[in-house]
Each structure stands twice: as structure tokens, then as C-alpha cells.
Amino acid sequence: MGPSDAAASGLKTALCSLLGIDLPIVQAPIGSATSPALVSEVSNAGGLGMLALSWRDPAAVRRVILETRERTTRPFGVNLGLEWDQDERLGICLEEGIRIVSLFWGDPSSHVPRVHEAGALVLHTVRSAEEARRSVDAGVDVVVAQGWEAGGHVWGEVTTLPLIPAVVDAVTPAPVIAAGGIADGRGLAAVLALGAAGAWIGTRFIASEEAWVDESYKERIVEAKETDTTYSSLYDGGWPDAPHRVIRNSTVERWEEAGRPGPGRRPGEGEQVAFLADGRPVDRYSDMLPLPGMTGDLEALALYAGQSTGLVDRVKPASEIVADIAAEALAAIQRVAAEELEGGTSSTAG
User: Fold this and answer.
1) What pTM did the predictor assign?
2) Which CATH number is 159's domain given?
């Protein structure tokens, strides 16, 4: 399903032209929840699908890129977290012709020349206007400004509304993608009004038919209100000292009732609460999210989600999510324009 001509023309930004996409909608690289099916559906619908590759072994990196390319001829990107050495993974991505590389959680400067030499673009996630300025000075092509409302691992502590215009002012004319708290077309329209050139959307796409997570996780996102998430560094097994936002669940509640103790003193520490499809155990405070084929107490695992959960009403195909966001954004922009015109006419008539 591609975008309507009206939505594509009415929402086209500099980001669309730079990345070769029809709509300024980017599916955030939502960790293990990304899959060739999800990424290709978003890209085929006119947005930009993103593969999260930070923890995949080299063979799997190449495999998922090839599988995605079999499903779409449209642009898609890859995301690599800089908390780990990504030289080998980045090399494979560039060998396979990836032309959109997103970097996160660290300094991108050492990787930018290599990506540019391969003819690819660099996106980088930032938490402040100062970091955005440094990133652009280092050659980053597109800045992703992540607000505190975001789900999953959250780089900064400034909310989306004040962060976006500050970053836009700092790096114009470089395009800025707004991340954090955006799950519908009204949010897209809002960040475009703030000067962003697109929206980076994660939580809404976890609740898609194609997201590679257990169905119970998707339903928790649908059921959760905007007040049901919490921000901490609780799920640190595999990624210590990395703040994140999750849906409050039994693990979070037990920890809070115990007074939010630090590692080594938390309730049920070391307890195996779930098992991967291949039988490997998953501890209570692991950074692992509920994946298909897992067994055990999946509710107790890290249910990454942003404060936009209150805007997610049902699980839908990813292509429908893209189309709905685009149509709603265009309608919101047109409604504001009509109200301004009506107000101006009334003022003149008066």
C-alpha cells in the first residue's frame, strides 16, 4: 500500500527528498522487534523502515539485509548502537549497499567518513542542541532528536516539545527528525510545525502485525495508558547503566515496593523468568524483550514503550499505520490552515 498522492505531496519535506521516501515517517529501530517484514512494509507504504542490527552476529546482519531487499525496492536503513564495537557490522552493511546508516548512544565522528566514502548517509540520535551541533560539525547528514517521552533506551532527559525547536535552531539547514511521544498524525503535524522534517516512531510500530514480538507484548501496549510507563535503568542485564522507558509490570512493581534498590539487592535478582525458543534462560532483569517462541513469565520482561501508549488503540498492519498517520497529519495541517483563514477573514470583516 503506497501513500495517497495528496498525502505524499502535502507532507513532502527536505527529509523525503534526501532519503528518497514519500512520507516523513520513519519506523524507529525498535531492537529485536524489527524484522524484514516490518521494515519492508513501512518502506513500501512510503515511509522509511529501519533494521536494528546492534546485537546480531555478522551472518545474521547480512541475512536480514538480503531478506529485506527481497521484500522491497524502496529505501530502508540500518541502526547501530555505539555502546559496542560496530566496525564489522557497519562494513557488512556498506558492502551490501545500505545507503542510510543510523547511529546511536555515542560519538559518531569516527564512523562518518567511512559511511560517506561508501556513498551513504549518516543519521545520528542526539539529546541536546549542543550534541546536535557537534554531530553536524562531524559530518552527520540528519539529526534525530530524541525526547524523554520515548520508549526503549532513552539517550537524554529533555522532553520532545522544547528539544525539537532547540535542535532545529542549532543545525538548520540539516534536517531534524523528531523522536519521542509520537504515535499518530497529530504528533507528526505537531513536530513538523516545530521545524522537524519528519517523525521517528517506535511504540506504534511495536503494536503492528509485522513486529517480531510476542502477541502479549503488543496487547499490553494497546491496553496501556499514557501514565503506565516508567523511566529507569532497571533492565540492565546485557546493557548496564542505560536508562530506558518500559510499561510498568510485576517486575517494576516489586522493585518499587522494595524501595528501588540497586543491582545486587533487587527482588528476584538472578531468577530465570522466561526461556528463548532455543531453551536459553532469560533472567528477570535482562534487557531482553518478549520474542515469538519464548515461554515463561513474559509479562515480567522488559516491555519497552513510550508515553505514546495512550494513543495506540489496536494492532494493525504496518502499512495501515503509515497510511493512517499520513492522512491524519495532512488533515490536522489542513484544519489549522482553515481555522487560521477563517480567523483572518473574521478579523478583516470585523
Assistant:
1) 0.94
2) 3.20.20.70
Assigned C-alpha cell, 264: 545486587
63 & 120 share domain: yes
* pLDDT at 259 (0 to 100): 97
What pLDDT sits at residue 339? 78
CB-based contact 29:79 (threshold 8 Å): yes
Please give the pLDDT value at position 255: 98
Expressed as residue numbers, the domain containing 75 is: 6-211+318-341
Same domain as 108, residue 193: yes
Q: What percent of the chain has pLDDT over 70?
A: 95
Is 277 domain-assigned?
Answer: yes
Residue for grid cell 532455543: 278
pLDDT the model gives residue 277: 95
Pairing outcome for strands 142-146 and 176-179 = parallel
CA distance readout (Å), 178 to 57, 106, 182, 225, 304: 30, 18, 8, 22, 19
The pLDDT tens digits for 93-125 are 999 999 999 999 999 999 999 999 999 999 999
What contacts 24+ positions apart, CB below 8 Å, involve 297-302?
A: 297/250, 297/273, 298/214, 298/216, 298/217, 298/274, 299/216, 299/220, 299/249, 299/250, 300/249, 300/250, 300/251, 300/273, 300/274, 301/235, 301/249, 301/251, 301/273, 301/274, 302/235, 302/244, 302/246
Cis peptide before 108 (omega within 30 of 0): no
- Regions of the chain where pLDDT drops below 70: 1-9, 340-341, 343-350
